[in-house]
Amino acid sequence: MSRQGTPVWYELMTPDPDAAQGFYGKILGWSVSDSGMPGMDYRIAKAGEAMVAGMMRPPTDGIAPNWTIYFAVENCDSAVAAAQTAGASVCMEPTDIPGVGRFATLADPQGAAFCILQGVGDGDGQAFDQKKTGHGNWHELMSSDPKAALAFYGRLFGWKPSTAHDMGSMGIYQVFSHQGQDIGGMMGLGNAPMPCWLPYFGVNGIGAAMARITANGGTTVMGPREVPGGAFILVAQDPQGAVFALVGPK
Questions:
Q1: Which CATH number does the domain housing residue 174 bear?
Q2: Is residue 184 within 8 Å of 138, Cβ to Cβ?
Q3: 140, 114: one domain
Q4: What pLDDT band is residue 211 in, cutting at 50, 70 and 90?
Q5: Residue 113 domain-assigned (yes or no)
Q6: Cα–Cα distance list, 200 to 84, 102, 247 (Å)
Q7: Closest CA to 229 of 246, 208, 248
């Protein structure tokens, strides 16, 4: 089965990796250590033995703290070409990471940034697991044109529209599926200043996680809020300003 379009990695750009390492370790139970990549401070976060996320300083000034989602592709260069044909722009050309694979950074036609990864081996499929805490669980796109966005990602990744939820004045929340599994949703911009992706990480209790966020210098931006299916979500900001979200039982 093709892995094209599967979420495979989550990456934090932060001006203070030491502080971020401590914060997310307390919030999500991650253990974080240096990746061993020569010439750069790139850190790997693990949930148990599974590698789930990376942390690094921005490569240039002026990049606000943020989380980026990586999606798998069969061929990085051909995926970049297909994305460009469909109206995307290239933020970083295809680049090799020794022992990991080939990746590129793109912005969809509405401007939301994301990464693609042509991985080597089978070690790139541990980060996304909706059954495990500390792993990626859901992927939300705030877009100025959610319908056009779904068409774009549908062509690029094979994603399909799933259920749609009417949120009243906030418009439609369109769930999308990948190979029969609901993996995220798309909606209007809401309070987002620009189109962007937001990763959700699984926790075993939203109330306790919210308390940990507050106790460790983070802030809750939205929630907790119950969502269809009975789970609860919250959107938060880490002490450096990166926005992330959590999902789990109350």
A1: 3.10.180.10
A2: yes
A3: no
A4: very high
A5: yes
A6: 27, 25, 6
A7: 248
* pLDDT confidence of residue 35: 84
pLDDT, average across residues 110-135: 88
Residue of 98, 69, 93, 97 whose CA lies nearest to 83: 93
Please identify, among 87, 119, 151, the residue that sits at the C-terminal boundary of a domain: 119
Question: Pick from 55, 90, 119: which residue ends a domain?
Answer: 119
Q: How, if at all, do strands 7-13 and 50-56 pair?
A: parallel
* φ, ψ of residue 154 in degrees (nearest 5): -60, -45
Strand partners for 247? 202, 233
CA atoms of 210 and 197, how far apart (whole Å) = 21
Query: 244 and 234 in contact (C-beta within 8 Å)?
Result: no
Indicate the number of domains in the chain: 2
Q: Are 127 and 9 in contact (CB under 8 A)?
A: yes
pLDDT band of 120, cuts 50, 70, 90: confident
What residue has token string 């750069």?
40
> pTM to 2 decimals?
0.95
Select from 237, 231, 175, 176 the least CA-distant residue to 210: 237
Query: Residue 127: inside a domain, yes or no?
Result: no
Which domain range does residue 114 map to? Answer: 7-119
The predicted structure's pLDDT at residue 1: 60
Task: Looking at the structure, tell me whether residues 104 and 186 fall in a common domain.
Answer: no
- 225 by Cβ neighbours in 10 Å (0-12 / 13-18 / 19+) ranks as exposed
DSSP 8-state code for residue 65: P
SS3 91: strand
